[in-house]
Amino acid sequence: MFAVLGFVTLLALVTGLIHLYLWKRLVRDTTRPGRLRLVGGVTVLVLALLVPATMIGTQAGAYWLAWPGYLWLAIMFYLLVVLVVLELPMVVARLLLRRRVTAAAPTSRAPEPALVAAGGSTADPPATTTDAGAQPDHDPSRRLLLARSAAIFAGLTATGLTGYGVRTALGPPQLDRVQIPLARLPRSMDGLRIATVSDIHLGPLRGRAHTERIVAAINRLDADIVAVVGDMVDGSVAELGEAAAPLRGLRSRHGSYFVTGNHEYYSGVEEWVREVDRLGLRVLQNHRVEIMARGGALDLAGVNDAEAAGTGVAGPPDYAAALGGRDPSRPVVLLAHQPVAAFEAATYGVDLQLSGHTHGGQLVPFNYLVRLQQPVVSGLGEVNGTKVYVTNGAGFWGPPVRVGAEPQITLVELRSA
Fold it and tell me: Which one of the record's GO molecular function terms can you name (predicted)?
C-alpha cells in the first residue's frame, strides 16, 4: 500500500513539474494576459491531472481513460524533449535579438537649435516623442513571435512522432532472425531454433486479436522451442483470460515455455501461472528442463523475475535452484525477464540468456535512460562472458506508441562454435 502511495506521489510531483514547464513555454510565453492565457492554463491543468488519473483509473477498470490519457503521455514526453532541445537555440536567438535592439536604440541626442522669437526671446523647442532611454516597441512582438514559432514547431513535432509511433506500435511485430554461436553446443544441435517473444502486454488497449496475431507469427517460424519471457499481461485472469486463450495454439517441436515478468506480479501471479500452464506453456519457476533434440542435449532454465521478492508467492529468483548441480559439459540457455539477471547468471556459466523487459526503449530517446538500469537494451550483447539477447517485445506498456523500437518477435538460431 505504501509503495503504491509512494509511486503515485512521485508520479504526481514529476507530472506537475513537467506541466508547469509546458505551461510556461506553451502558454505564458506565447500569449498576453487575458482570456486566452486563462484557457491555456486551465487546459494544461486538466492534462496534468489526466496522467495520474489514467494510471490509477485503468488499474481500477476505467479503461475509457486509457486512450486519451496514454496518448497525451506520449505527446507530453515529446513536447518536453523538443522544448528542452530548443532551449539553447532560443537563448541564442534572444541574445541576438536583444543585441540588435540595443544597437538600433539611439545613444545620444544632438543639441536642439534654439529658436529666437520676434521679440528676441528664446522659444521652447518643439516637443519630441523620442526618449534616449526608450526601447523600440517591436522587441516584445518579436520575442512573442519567437516563442510562438518554437511552440508550433514543438507541437507539430510531438504530434507527428506520436502519430508515427501509434502506427508502429499497433502494427504487426517484425520477425527478426539472429544466429548465436555457443561453444558447448553439440554439432548435432547446430541450427536449433528458439522463437522468442516478450512483453505482449495484454491489457486495456490490446486484446485477443493481438494474441492471435502473435501466435500466428510464431507458428510460421516452425521453431523447435517457444520462449515467452515475461510481461504477458496487465490485468487479472478474470479480465484477460479470454484474450490470452489463443496461446493454446502455439506450436513447436520441443514445447513452449514461460517465465514471469514484473507485470505478472501486479496482475495476480498465482492465477496466471496456473492459467498459462493450463494453456499448454510450461512455467519455469527457478527450474530447468533437459531438451533432447537432434541427438544432443541442452539445459533450458528459467528464473522468477526480481519483482517476486517479497511477494511470498513464487519467491525471488533462485539461480542456484535453476542452474546449480547441472552437467557442466552441457550448454544452458536461461530465460530471465530482465537483462540485468545476466550478472548473476554469468557466475553460473550460463551460455545464453534470453530476455525482454526493456521494450528496446519504446520511445527514443528513452532508450538512453534504460541503459542506466540494464546492461543490454536491445539485440545481442555480452555480460561477463554470458551472451544476452534482448528482444524489443511484441506489445507496449503505457502509451500505444513506439518510436525507434519496433515491436518484435525473434527467431534465435543456435550455432555450434
Answer: UDP-2,3-diacylglucosamine hydrolase activity
Residues of the chain with CATH 3.60.21.10: 175-416
Q: What is the CATH number of domain 175-416?
A: 3.60.21.10
Q: Is the pLDDT of residue 98 over 90?
A: no
pLDDT score of 228 more than 50: yes
pLDDT bucket at 134, cuts 50 / 70 / 90: very low
Statement: residue 79 has pLDDT above 50 = yes
**334: helix, coil or strand?**
strand
Q: Which helix (H) or strand (E) holds 58?
A: helix 35-59
Determine the Cα–Cα distance for residues 270 and 166; give it in Å rounded to an integer. Answer: 33
Exposure class string for 78-117: b at 16+ Cβ within 10 A, else e: bbbbbbeebeeebeebeeebeeeeeeeeeeeeeeeeeeee
- Residue 226: name the closest of 281, 180, 266, 265 by CA: 281
Pairing of the two strands 332-335 and 379-383 = unpaired
Cell (9 digits) for 350: 550460463
Which residues is 178 bridged to in the sheet?
412
Residue 121, pLDDT > 60, answer no
Rounded-to-integer distance, Cα 344 and Cα 334, Å: 11
Is the preceding omega at residue 246 within 30 degrees of 0, hence cis? no
Task: Give 137's pLDDT tier (boundaries 50, 70, 90).
Answer: very low
Strands 352-355 and 332-335: parallel
| CA distance linking residue 99 with residue 88, whole number of Å | 17
Amino acid at 40: G
**Sheet containing 256-259: order of strands:** 174-182, 408-416, 193-197, 225-229, 256-259, 282-283
pLDDT confidence of residue 123:
53
Q: Is residue 330 left, alpha or beta, with left meaning phi > 0 and alpha meaning psi from -120 to 50?
A: beta
| Rounded Cα distance, 59 and 82, in Å | 30
Distance, CA of 348 to CA of 325 (rounded, Å): 10
Q: What share of the chain is helix, strand, coil (3-state, %, to 5)?
A: 45, 20, 35
- The per-residue pLDDT of the chain, averaged, comes to 90
Cell triple for residue 148?
Answer: 510562438
- The C-alpha cell at 406 is 519496433
Question: Is residue 174 over pLDDT 70?
Answer: yes
Residue 250 amino acid letter: L
SS3 183: coil
